[in-house]
Amino acid sequence: MGSLVWLVHIPLLIIGALSVAVAEPGDVNIGAIFTFSTINGKVAKIAMEAAVQDVNSDPNFLGGKKLAISMHDSNYSGFLSIIGALQYMELDTVAIIGPQSAVMAHVLSYLANELHVPMLSFTALDPTLSPLQYPYFIQTAPNDLFQMTAIAEMVSYFGYREVTVVFSDDDQSRNGISVLGDILAERRCKISYKAALPPDPIATRDNIKNALIKVRLMESRVIVLHTFKITGLQVFDVAQYLGMMDSGYVWIASTWLSSFLDSSSPISHNTAKSIQGAITLRHHTPDSEKKRAFLTRWNQLSNNSIGLNAYALYAYDTVWMIANAVKVFLENGGNISFSNDPTLSGLGGGALNLAALSVFDGGKQLLSNILQINMTGLTGPLGFNPDRSLIHPSYDIINVIGSGFQQIGYWSNYSGLSVESPEVLYTKPPNRSSSNQQLHSVVWPGGTTIKPRGWVFPNNGRKLRIGVPNRVGYKAFVSRVNGTNKIQGYCIDVFNAAVKLLPYGVPYEFILFGDGHKNPSYAELVHKVASNVFDAAVGDIAIVTNRTKNVDFTQPYIESGLVIVAPLRKLNSSAWAFLRPFTPLMWGVTAAFFLIVGAVVWILEHRLNDEFRGPPRKQLMTILWFSFSTMFFAHRENTVSTLGRMILIIWLFVVLIINSSYTASLTSILTVQQLASNIKGIDTLIASNVRIGFQVGSFAENYMSEELGISKSRLVALGSPEEYAMALEKGTVAAVVDERPYIELFLSTYCKFSIVGQEFTKSGWGFAFPRDSPLAIDMSTAILALSENGELQKIHDKWLNKDVCGSERSQFDSSELHLNSFWGLFVISGIACILALLVYFCMMLRKFGRYFTEVHDPSIHGSSRSARVQTFFSFVNEKAEVSKSKLKRKRTELSSDVSRRELESTNGSERIEIGISEERRYSDTWLR
């Protein structure tokens, strides 16, 4: 209500400027407030009149009532817009289409709220017109939240990180740019500069020129233009005059430019030339038979005076939305009636009779009917989401080329950027992955198809301020030339070489950071880059997590990581040094296997080989001699069995490996130096209570105290390699923890120290730039190129390859050989021995079975098992030739015995036959 009080003082003479049509009794009255001299005002007037005509063509559509529309020309004046809205409220108007600008929408929405008259606009698309604050205001076209989202996604798609915005300083443009900034921030992009212009159409060429001159001095070359037609065309004209439509620039205009292109064909040569290469958005309306029919009808409706644009289609559909809502209202028994507002009863009098303003009794129901609309219009399916935004907001993306334009893709709130129409995408699952975001190629300002870099160094005469640490020690990395302001070193050479590879010039100057008495804090140097005190930082700056949160680093140009360095001492001679190559367990297992293999070979050779026979004492000595002589391949006993030779070959191979390893390890032990301390790596360093040195300014201090939990009382700050060496020699610190590049340079001069254990962090050095700096990306590419062409290694060798210790130092590592390194060989040898013994045992059992059966008497077969086992061991112990001789002799005896028995049997038969003959002969004689 507070916003309405001041309306009482509106001059009464303004009423004469109104052009409101008088409706007949019984009509359904709607009003429209536009500036009809603008492109959108012209096409909206034609489209709304055509829509009213189409609604009234069916007399039964509104139950016998007709739709009457009264149009008021605000003529760019917010004041006249207010007067027109008040006039409509005196004429029992059920809905108002408009206003055209968001500035007046904010004001008139209070009037609509008070008098319950729905207000619908397809041009006042300010995203801050909240339905919570303005419940009776409805946007019937997608508001600028979606347009700004589309622009932000295009900026991100093309890989730009900063944009400059040029906009009219009114509610709609200002709030749209604010939303754009928020959406860009979500994508790690930002608005680097805002150029505000006076509201359209009062901006002059001088206003625009002054603003664009400042824009031209900025770093960003991606310019978003959010204004209206009159101001927008002047901006492009001045930009062309200033050379800002040449190669290197990117121009993205909001929907005003596409509306101009659609409705102003053909455009003049000068205008076409000034907008070449620009990208703009157009509200997407799907192709349909209904739309094509209206397009055919348009020339007749407009008398060929103006082309059809998307806002004409939204104007037509907005009228039909009101008509359908009124139809439902009437069909449900609603009665169009108005009542006086008691709060305005005391404001009557004069030509402007505010007391005559009436409240639409059915306004709340009509508003509900509009929000529940479900129809298909010229712009496609019409309906509202719960937040009152239109369903399926989408845009065509247009590239201005020549005297016309070409469409390079679409944007939809469903799937983002695409070369397929939104209607096709709606049939598929939503996919907003980066790989699915696509646009056709663009012809940029200047006629090039190569994507502009999007930024340049600010053209304000200022060089980049490059912070460089003023080091005290390790000056090979960064140092100041004595007596001059020149800065040199490994890091400086890498930076200069990378800058030379950039496709553009970089004006810069080095500024030393630090007092020169101690190394500066690198964390503070990085912070100064983040706070824009320096434009970049160059030096031996480690890329660590805390720093990457504040700045962007280039690709690392050298690998780094924390290592431990400790003192060395010469190896003291020892009478037992020859035992050091093997651990005690290794020695024990090796000795055991010598005996095992000797015993196995003895078993396999004992029955066949005379060299493995004899008295027990001799045989024991043979086993021992043969076992240990194989260590030197000096065994003199020959093996004759196949299994024995196989075992011996395998064992000699094992011995060869063991001998070679022993020799190499002993050589290493006798020639290398050994650590003086018991620190073997970071674990033993943490567990101990010794003091640890670190370099002043390095991140190593915080890392050891915060990440590793080492007490700060154990940490000692050291400033130079000389201090490192002195502290280690005197025992002030037991070890120094620092980054590998420093330690390698330190060890190249100081030979009494060495690295302990392994590197326990992984990082690298890079150049620091402010967040989202495009120079960081280009410098990374240049560093990769230096690495690939070998230049980076040459710079490294120039400054850091200075090892004067040569072979005096070998990094300590335990030279003892453990069983783990050889257990595979022992397993193979052991399995071979077991298999050979099993085969041999089976063969002996088979031979013994034959031997026992043939040689021994049957009476022994029934003897005890112990006697049989004893006989078996006697057989095994017996030489093979003796066993064969016994078996042969036994077979001979058996053969002789059989022959004798056969002879005796033959002689007995002959004597019997002779006796029988004699007896027969005697009988015959006696009988005769």
From TrEMBL:
Q: Which residues form the signal peptide?
A: 1-23
Which keywords belong to this entry?
Disulfide bond, Glycoprotein, Ion channel, Ion transport, Ligand-gated ion channel, Membrane, Receptor, Signal, Transmembrane, Transmembrane helix, Transport
Subcellular location(s) per record: Membrane
Listed as disulfide-bonded, the cysteine pairs are 751-805
Cellular component (GO) terms are: membrane
- Tell me the ranges covered by the Solute-binding protein family 3/N-terminal domain, including all copies: 463-803
Cite the Ionotropic glutamate receptor C-terminal domain residue spans from the record. 465-802
Entry protein name? Glutamate receptor
